[in-house]
Amino acid sequence: MKMVQAIIKPFKLDDVREALTEIGVTGMTATEVKGFGRQKGHTELYRGAEYVVDFLPKIKLEIVINDEKVNDVIEAVMKAAQTGKIGDGKIFVMPVEQAIRIRTGEEGDSAV
């Protein structure tokens, strides 16, 4: 099993969710987070005063899937989340040692 973590722009969440549903992903976790990468934030005006916004709002998706679906998930997220502009996000893939469904006690792939 693998965990795919994707950091995306907030307005792309629905597009990514729909793309993942189409390829058979049955669950994911979405968290509102703040961060910055190469874009280093930006400046905004508020009541005539300029201030720097260092951390930009993002959405972190966590999807645990079977190894066979990893490339499909990556491709779906990339297509759905891409705007072509700086700050589109990142995708990370990590191994998952064990998964357990709390309700039934199922383990491994059947718990996902």
Concise account of the structure shown:
The protein is of the alpha+beta class and about 110 residues long. It has helices at about 15-20, 70-80, and strands at about 1-10, 30-35, 40-45, 50-55, 55-65, 90-95. Helix content is about 20%, strand content about 35%.
Structure description:
The protein has about 110 residues and is of the alpha+beta class. The chain has a single domain (about 1-110), classed as Alpha-Beta Plaits (2-Layer Sandwich), CATH 3.30.70.120. It has two helices and six strands. The strands form two sheets. It has a four-stranded antiparallel sheet, with helices on one face. β3 (about 40-45) and β4 form a beta hairpin. α1 runs antiparallel to α2. The radius of gyration is 17 Å and the shape is elongated. The model has no long low-confidence stretch (mean pLDDT about 90).
Task: Describe the protein's topology.
Layout lengths: L1 E7 L4 H10 L6 E7 L6 E5 L2 E5 L2 E10 L4 H12 L7 E7 L17
Antiparallel strand pairs: 1-5, 1-6, 2-5, 3-4
Helix pairs in contact: 1-2
Which keywords apply here?
Alpha-Beta Plaits, 112 residues, 6 strands, 37% strand, 2 helices, four-stranded antiparallel sheet, single chain, alpha+beta
Largest sheet: 4 strands, antiparallel
From the helix content, strand content and strand pairing, which structural class follows? alpha+beta
Number of E-type strands = 6
Quaternary organisation of the protein chains: single chain
Q: Share of helix among residues?
A: 10-25%
* The number of domains: 1
Proportion of residues in β-strands: 35-45%
The poorly predicted ranges are: none
Q: Which sequence of strands runs across the widest sheet?
A: 2-5-1-6
Total of DSSP H or I helical runs spanning 4+ residues? 2
Mean pLDDT: 90
